[in-house]
Amino acid sequence: MGLVETKSLRFAGPPRKLLLTSGRRLGPVxxxxxxxxxxxxxxxxxxxxxxxxxxxxxxxGINGEGQQGWWEAMIGSGKxxxxxxxxxxxxxxxxxxKGSTGPFSVNLQTKKPYxxxxxxxxxxxxxxxxxxxxxxxxxxxxFCVVGGSMGGMQVLQWVSSYPERVHSAIPIxxxxxxxxxxxAFNEVIRQAIMADPAWRKGSYYGLGQPKKGLAIARMIGxxxxxxxxxxxxxxSRKLKNGDYSxxxxxxxxxxxxxxxxxxxxxKRFDANSYLYITKAMDYFDxxxxxxxxxxxxxxxxxx
Amino acid sequence: MGLVETKSLRFAGPPRKLLLTSGRRLGPVxxxxxxxxxxxxxxxxxxxxxxxxxxxxxxxGINGEGQQGWWEAMIGSGKxxxxxxxxxxxxxxxxxxKGSTGPFSVNLQTKKPYxxxxxxxxxxxxxxxxxxxxxxxxxxxxFCVVGGSMGGMQVLQWVSSYPERVHSAIPIxxxxxxxxxxxAFNEVIRQAIMADPAWRKGSYYGLGQPKKGLAIARMIGxxxxxxxxxxxxxxSRKLKNGDYSxxxxxxxxxxxxxxxxxxxxxKRFDANSYLYITKAMDYFDxxxxxxxxxxxxxxxxxx
Lengths: 303, 303
Hints:
Rna Polymerase Sigma Factor, Chain: A, Rossmann fold, homodimer, six-stranded mixed sheet, two-stranded antiparallel ribbon, alpha/beta
């Protein structure tokens, strides 16, 4: 696909602030997004791709930093999501740290990064921000909304909140709500970040990430991303150096996997975003009709 | 059962040092233990109870600190393990922090607590120390060895290493080896402790526990102690205060469960012991015949 550019949409001015599920307002809001392919004259060929927890707007092609998109295997000429036929849109979620407004963004009222002043958001709030982008692009009805994991939650939320605006939906490896076990893991993930003195109650910007806490958090996450069975198939009890070390180092191959994933993540993801996004996932629950209808009341169309 | 006393057996002098699976020697070694009931003349009514990760020698009765034993429901006059009939023995594992030699014990060579100078031990080493206690008590053959979780691992190890000395065995909720998922959780548990600056590379004695890291570690452990299904039955997605807080506090009942368990544990368990004991569990693997036979070579009978 070649070079792609990440664009940004900004909702400015009080009437366009997002009214969040919590009742708080957020604005101005910037949304980082990319598009691939061409919108047809009928505006009927748009597909919205929703990213997972640690993803971003850069789903395909090579961006200005020379990085390949995270779904390069699926999006492009002749690929499953064929850019000769479809107009593909991907945006970074609000609360994220990849160009859209999140806890590291500057709060215009204080002239400092929001940090924990950023409001707690929900999957519905992420979708509401996406809806404004879709409105801005002049698309009445998406041909498809697709995404995996937290992206799949957004897909389910789209269908639930705006069924009239979605022709088809592909939620992949997603839940309509977290079971208590996953809530428990996410709670420990957040507490691991907050236990790191370098977290400084969220106000660490300019001073360096709470790397150790974020590393523990991410390792917990990575265990939950694989099933017991897939770990058995991939690692079993294989040893890194053929024998027990009798020291507190990585003995098993599975330890090395966690360490690699962790180191990779700590460099590229904001710790506060991890707090906000995991909380949004824990709050997601399509079983509660009251919650759903409340949510709809609180997110009127501003466009 | 009334008041019970915790006794201590000490293996002193070089010939009685424990030769560990690692090849290192440990000594002198103290073992804290309790007994309930009376050993009969034939010495044939002895039952060894093995405790789980965070347990101790105080399995039944009321000790000097007024605490009930951890298996009070099962051990006593007229109970499942009837002290009118059986002579019950329970000892704290080596590597522990409840009276037996562990990382917080004073290393006679340095006159300071071992901390990370303490050797990495195995379940087989724990059992070897128990075997010396059984020898000391003059018991040739145990009527039964019983224990749950890590206690069950010790039971399996007894049967595997000393089948001639065990008449019957009751391993409860135990594995003959950890799958990679459990190894991964234990690795993160250890890293959570070691990531806490208060851990000070293990040399925190006299300066206070690495409470925050230990708290994260224990919460991870507690998630793995329950199945997804039992968490669903016990907590589901029940909220503590009826509604979402939209703050980073405990919203769900399952969070409160973790917090309670964690606070309880941090007060009473040594962080370094947690490192050593989880490592021993990860190393436990009865599938490797080589490992088993090596172990037998390295743990000759000193008594």
